[in-house]
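Severity: low
Component: inverse-folding endpoint
Summary: output formatting inconsistent between runs
Steps to reproduce: submit the following structure tokens with default settings.
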């Protein structure tokens, strides 16, 4: 069904395409300036602003790939920080600008982008990690484990060898071994934090004991975490990914149950200024439907509401296992001890008294949201691969099916991936080596797919991917590239034996009115066909209607 604004939107899209060529030319000219002078801060700012414009506008006019390319360019600008820009940076940006030009040209001509490129993001560069530790088996194991998790790792033998990082380009993360000289290690972290852009990298300190006082000292010097030896690499990687993903994560969603317009306006102003997305529910009867549609990270609950008490609403939330861990901050004018006790009994996480200061509100919300998101990561992520669990994967799939019902033209593809002859790998090389293969495939999927794509471990050696806004043909081409890339990876067992592994995959497009189970079954049948056809291949399920 068309709306009365469709004609105007089409005219705006035509104007957008006409003007985009000049804007892309401007990006090329800015890159010329940066090529001549990598320390030109104004040029870097102009480049970021230019990419930002495409990031915020492409999807509006039906070109999600343009938004993705703009977002990637903007992210690369942020990663550079205060510079200086080097030749590799410019080369990467030029590739992005060229891809933008192709997308705009294809849209202006009414066609599609080059095969396999439509709707895809530019491959994200792997996060860089600097490991500062003396040479040895311990460092070698940590570097190897991080590399398998799709990090770009550089090692330095001690603090003196790593001194150059304080005057040059900063990595995305730094892991400092403090076992030898804790005082020097903490001083290094403090010096790193004092540099321009020094607040950006994630910093972990590794120590020999990991007692409470050691952790406190590490935090005081500016570290984001302290890990005791022997290092729990999986826990370190989980925390590292969580902290690195915060910058690119979508804005936290806050749901406010509030019937006072003035208080709602106050919350909207304060939380909006900090980048939060706020939705206000004036009628408590709509709370359940808003929770399902908005999927908030946190709830702000007023107590005096029409027809019901806020305490009772919180109790009802806590009876639903879907919301058992959802943070709830109770806002009330009652500051007495009895009110605080009632809030705690109802299941509230915090009790703030109105009028609440903006600083206190923001700090409380930020702390609760960060803790909640990390707990959700622990619950929803597979402990070995860091991908979504089976349950979380199906929950995301149900959301995709719901979108399809609202917008039948939307295209989505379920991909079922299974490692070929995986039992033979476990039997011949041992289960730890098999785990390494699973981690390696998970890292490849994470590195090559878009951040918005849904990637999970379906069970055992089976993985599943949900791609939105891609045709079945484009999804198949993408998986063919991933299949070939994974098949070329050399794996090594603990005994030093080298071997290669392949995978098979089945694809199924989501059809109108189809359930999640039927969609998954269709992809599963295509996977069986790929296995029966000789493995190491991609098969697309036929149309079901």
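Observed output (run 2 of 3):
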């Amino acid at each position: 069904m068309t709306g009365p604004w469709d004609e105007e939107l089409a005219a705006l899209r035509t104007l957008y395409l006409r003007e985009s060529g000049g804007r892309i030319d401007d990006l090329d000219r800015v890159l010329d300036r940066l090529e001549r002078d990598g320390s030109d801060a104004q040029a870097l700012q102009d480049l970021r602003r230019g990419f930002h414009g495409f990031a915020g506008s492409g999807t509006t006019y039906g070109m999600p790939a343009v938004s993705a390319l703009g977002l990637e360019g903007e992210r690369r600008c942020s990663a550079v920080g205060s510079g200086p820009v080097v030749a590799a940076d410019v080369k990467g940006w030029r590739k992005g600008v060229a891809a933008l030009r192709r997308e705009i040209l294809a849209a202006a001509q009414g066609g599609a982008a080059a095969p396999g490129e439509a709707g895809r993001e530019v491959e994200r560069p792997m996060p860089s990690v600097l490991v500062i530790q003396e040479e040895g088996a311990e460092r070698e194991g940590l570097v190897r484990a991080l590399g398998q998790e799709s990090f770009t790792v550089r090692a330095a033998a001690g603090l003196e060898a790593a001194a150059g990082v304080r005057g040059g380009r900063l990595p995305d993360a730094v892991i400092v071994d403090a076992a030898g000289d804790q005082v020097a290690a903490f001083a290094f972290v403090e010096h790193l934090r004092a540099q321009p852009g020094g607040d950006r990298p994630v910093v972990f300190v590794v120590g020999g004991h990991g007692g409470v006082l050691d952790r406190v000292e590490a935090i005081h010097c500016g570290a984001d975490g302290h890990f005791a030896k022997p290092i729990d690499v999986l826990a370190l990687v989980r925390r590292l990914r969580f902290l690195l993903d915060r910058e690119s994560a979508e804005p936290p969603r806050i749901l406010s149950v509030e019937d006072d317009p003035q208080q709602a306006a106050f919350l909207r102003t304060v939380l909006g200024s900090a980048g939060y997305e706020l939705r206000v529910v004036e009628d408590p009867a709509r709370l359940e439907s808003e929770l399902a549609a908005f999927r908030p990270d946190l709830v702000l609950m007023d107590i005096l509401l029409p027809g019901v008490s806020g305490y009772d609403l919180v109790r009802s939330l806590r009876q639903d296992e879907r919301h058992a861990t959802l943070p709830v901050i109770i806002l009330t004018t009652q500051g007495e001890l009895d009110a605080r006790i009632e809030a705690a009994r109802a299941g509230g996480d915090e009790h703030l008294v109105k009028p609440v200061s903006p600083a206190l509100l923001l700090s409380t919300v930020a702390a609760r949201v960060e803790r909640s998101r990390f707990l959700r990561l622990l619950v929803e992520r597979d402990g070995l691969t860091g991908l979504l669990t089976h349950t979380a994967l199906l929950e995301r799939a149900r959301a995709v099916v719901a979108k399809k019902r609202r917008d039948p033209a939307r295209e989505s593809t379920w991909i079922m991936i299974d490692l070929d002859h995986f039992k033979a790998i476990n039997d011949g090389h041992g289960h730890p080596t098999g785990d390494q293969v699973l981690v390696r495939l998970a890292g490849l999927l994470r590195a090559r797919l878009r951040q918005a794509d849904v990637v999970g471990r379906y069970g055992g050696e089976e993985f599943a991917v949900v791609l939105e806004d891609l045709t079945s043909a484009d999804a198949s081409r993408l998986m063919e590239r991933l299949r070939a890339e994974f098949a070329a990876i050399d794996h090594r067992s603990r005994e030093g034996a080298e071997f290669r592994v392949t995978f098979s995959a089945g694809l199924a497009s989501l059809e109108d009115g189809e359930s999640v189970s039927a969609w998954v079954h269709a992809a599963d049948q295509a996977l069986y066909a790929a296995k029966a056809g000789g493995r190491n291949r991609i098969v697309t399920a036929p149309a079901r209607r």
